[in-house]
Amino acid sequence: MFDNGLDQLAVNTIRTLSIDAVQTANSGHPGTAMALAPLVYTIWNRVMAFDPQDPIWPNRDRFVLSNGHASMLLWSVLHLSGTRAVNADYEKLGQLSVTLEDIRRFRQFGSKAPGHPEYHWVSGVESTTGPLGQGIATSVGMAIAEKWLASRYNKPALNIFDYNIYAICSDGCLMEGVSSEAASLAGHLALDNLCWIYDNNHITIEGSTQITFTEDVAARFLSYHWNVLRLSDANDIEQIDQALQKFRETKGKPTLIILDSHIGYGSPNRHDTAAAHGEPLGLDEIRLTKRAYGWPEDAQFLVPEGVREHFAAGIGRRGAAARQVWINLFNDYRNKYPELTTEIDQMQHRELPAEWDNNLPVFPEDPKGLAGREASGKVLNVLAQNIPWLLGGSADLGPSTKTLLNYLGAGDIQAQTPGGKNLHFGIREHAMCAILNGLSLSKLRPYGATFFIFSDYARPAIRLSALMELPTIFIFTHDAMGDGEDGPTHQPIEQLASLRAIPGLTLLRPGDANEVVEAYRVILQLRHRPAVLVLSRQPLPTLNRNKYAPASGVASGAYILADTPGGKPDIILIATGSEISLAVQAHEKLIAEGIRSRVVSMPSWDIFEHQTQEYRDSVLPPAVKSRIAIEQASTFGWERYVGDSGRIIGMQTFGASAPLKELQKEFGFEPERVVIIAKELLEKQQLGGSCRSFSDY
Questions:
Q1: CA 662 from chain center: how many Å?
Q2: Residue 454: which H helix or E strand, with range?
Q3: Rg of the chain taking only CA atoms, in angstroms
Q4: For residue 688, what pLDDT is reported?
Q5: How far apart are CA 582 and CA 103, in angstroms?
Q6: Which residue from 24, 68, 461, 680 has the least number of CB within 10 angstroms?
Q7: What is the mean pLDDT of residues 666-689?
Q8: Which CATH superfamily hosts domain 366-541?
Q9: How many other CB atoms are found less than 10 A from the CB of residue 613?
């Protein structure tokens, strides 16, 4: 079936392309690519169900290169297999995803062969990887997604979803805590569609792993309830093939294959850390290495005759046949299950079902109000019934974040019930968010929740979600000092500013229950942007929307909530979240004293900045210099909205352990304080003075 001569030629082509690309770029990591070329070749050309002509075919196997510094492995096989490019509208464009010229320009601006795999940039890349551990943690989300899809959509003799996920990881990946979190959950969920291959090469940047990493990895994964296999020769294609076959035969457990390798395998001279982690081989070493491979010593970027044809006869023929079988199956499925087919089509194109926002609650005026988290729970329980593929859970805080779906039939995702809607992540914030990315990459619409302060544990995965342009939903409750008695360890201060700084991330902090509804309405319509929803623990007054502006203004990021009669304010109060009601109270006091005040609710800086200049000026007229921003968080960034003549009531210290009302008084979050500052600003303006923007606390 296989030609060993062509197998080895293909392996050495991957190796030499990697060597030449790294040398030309004078940047990168050739050693791991040299060592793992036989493994990646075997996965791609012998095992994976993947059609290079249609790299987004829904039932394809997934390949994740978690040790992303070895990206030349991926660029080589994408090029040699002839994988085609697909645009964001899911229209196959026809040209190669990675050309030989891209490889020649490895790590250069505009090349489709960047330094690490980038999902949004190169077709055939299933996940952006780079920070070690993220790729394999994300692959757990992919495996959960396949189980969920199969449970909901597969019918007798019509298995629409039955693919596997292959992920390569390194010592560094397994040292990172996120991989431990994810592996533990994968074992609990018995994800037998998931295979991690651990490149056990005994080397990190600082030297031998003997100085840092001497644990028994096999025993550790056995304790996670994984199937563990060990291969002693990373160059033995047949042995690798057999191990991958054992993975496919194993039921009820994910599989870890420990592959003993050496950096720069195949080179007789270079087995050191430089080859793996930071230096090209150098011209003399390249010649010696190519000589050992039986390769023309001076040839660069050589793809010998027969190699591309060998891939076409392997993954090309096998993938095309598998996809055609699936297409025929799906056509039959379409005739028998038209409604489920519509769901699959909509999900794959990140579209929403008709009437997806039906029956969303409208909350009446209520001075006592409702906590943001409570309103969120009510909205989620409607949306999850309207959108079948909307699912999620919490990092062991479902009863507190109010993210548990409690409608009849919602169910839990467990090993025996993979089609539930409640996913219990355990106390694993970092893995939770990486897993959410894997679910989103699989075209489900996932959400995950925890307390806002613990977003710090999740930030790397949130950043990658923005980088990949995934519509993942991150729900964070206990957004400020409402968790008073727990003290400063549980009171977020800098988190809002930190997450607002991430490009491509939409953050919303709604101010009452109806703003929560509208925030979800905005979030669910995002197709290429993740969203962070920041919610209160404590009740917030539900505003009278007949008196104040409708909450639909949330869609603009900021809107005029309350205004002076006839408009044309003298002072503007800008607030978010729980401080909205504070601003409204201060506004009413100012209006009662004849002071022309305006309240601007600004749940999302990001959305507001995307509005027209005309709209932004209508909300925040440039001529009105007297402005106060109010937010129980770091003042960082608010200068852009209050200017040199404005003031910020915010936090420049951490909070304290005390009841909420006491904290509000201590840190100046009271309407009387806002009124005093407003009068000070107006008095200074009348005197022709100005003051630099600063926080009172």
A1: 38
A2: none
A3: 28
A4: 72
A5: 58
A6: 680
A7: 89
A8: Thiamin diphosphate (ThDP)-binding fold, Pyr/PP domains (3.40.50.970)
A9: 7
Q: Output the pLDDT for position 280.
A: 85
Longest CA pairwise span in the chain (Å): 90
Token reading at 397 = 């805080």
The position carrying tokens 């949330």 is 554
Give 437's pLDDT tier (boundaries 50, 70, 90). very high
Q: Which of 30-39, 313-322, 477-486, 524-533 has the lowest mean pLDDT?
A: 477-486
pLDDT tops 70 at residue 265 = no
* Predicted local confidence at residue 263, as pLDDT: 60
Say which DSSP state 468 is in.
Answer: H
Distance CA 65, CA 196 (A): 10
| 693 against 203, higher pLDDT | 203
Question: Please, which residues have CB within 8 angstroms of residue 591's CB and are 6 or more apart in sequence?
Answer: 564, 597
Tens digits of residue pLDDT in 504-538:
999 999 999 999 999 999 999 999 999 999 999 99
Contact 511, 519 (CB under 8 A): no
Count of CA atoms in the C-beta half-sphere (13 A) of 297: 9
- Give the H or E element holding residue 197: strand 194-200
Centre a 10 Å sphere on the Cβ of residue 125 and count the other Cβ atoms it contains.
28
Per-residue pLDDT tens digits for 448-487 = 999 999 999 999 999 999 999 999 999 999 998 877 788 8
CB within 8 Å of 215: residues ≥ 6 apart: none
Write the CB contacts of 230 (distance below 8 Å, at least 6 apart in sequence): 218, 257, 258, 260
At 689 the pLDDT is: 56
All CATH 3.40.50.970 domain ranges in the chain, comma separated: 4-324, 366-541
Quote the CATH superfamily of domain 4-324. Answer: Thiamin diphosphate (ThDP)-binding fold, Pyr/PP domains (3.40.50.970)
Q: What is the mean pLDDT of residues 184-199?
A: 98
Separation CA 217–CA 34 (nearest Å)? 24
The pTM of the full predicted model, rounded to 2 decimals, is: 0.95
Token pair recorded at residue 134: 């993220």
- The band of 3, judged by pLDDT with boundaries at 50, 70 and 90, is low
DSSP 614-673: HHHHHHS-TT---EEEEEEEE-TTTHHHH-TT-EEEEESS---SS-HHHHHHHTT-SHHH
CA distances from 429 to 424, 459, 493, 520, 541 (A): 11, 9, 19, 22, 30
State which amino acid sits at residue 428. R
| pLDDT number for residue 203 | 73
| 562 φ/ψ angles, rounded to the nearest 5 degrees | -140, 140
State the span(s) of the chain assigned CATH 3.40.50.920: 550-686
In this structure, of 39-43, 545-549, 635-639, 691-695, the range with the lowest mean pLDDT score is 691-695
Helix (H, G, I), strand (E, B) or coil at 164: coil
Q: Which DSSP string do the residues of 287-317 spell out, in sequence order?
A: HHHHHHTT--TT--S---TTHHHHHIIIIIH
As beta bridge partners, residue 417 has: 414
Whether residue 489 contacts residue 453, with contact meaning beta carbons closer than 8 Å, is answered with: yes
Q: How many angstroms separate the CA atoms of 697 and 689, rounded?
A: 22
- % of the chain surpassing 90 pLDDT: 85
Both tokens assigned to 70:
């070895």
- How is the beta sheet containing 445-451 ordered, strand by strand? 422-424, 390-394, 445-451, 473-477, 531-534, 506-508
Q: What is the CATH T-level fold of the domain 550-686, as seen in this structure?
A: Rossmann fold (3.40.50)
